[in-house]
Amino acid sequence: AMALLTVSNFCSAQPGSTWRNVQQHGVVPHKDSISTGALQALIDQCHAAGGGTLYFPAGEYGSGQLYLRSRVSFYLEAGAT
After folding, report:
1. What is residue 62's DSSP assignment?
2. CA dihedral sign of residues 3, 63, 24, 28
3. Does residue 58 register a pLDDT over 70?
4. Which of 3, 46, 66, 80 could hold 56 in an S-S bridge, CB 3.0 to 4.6 Å?
């Protein structure tokens, strides 16, 4: 199964040190690429570090089931699905 996440607007917030750009950590923005392992690793890393935000630039991301953790947020730029 594939999960789709969308956001319709973009805030002007700039990623800081607690932000992780998913594309810089092995997540490929292509609808036919499934990045479950890389996304789960990022979720787990953010949680272990005390929290953080996974930043998704515009693109189409595919994933299987993910286990979400406390203090981990997703920020999807306009055009990210």
Report:
1. B
2. negative
3. yes
4. 80
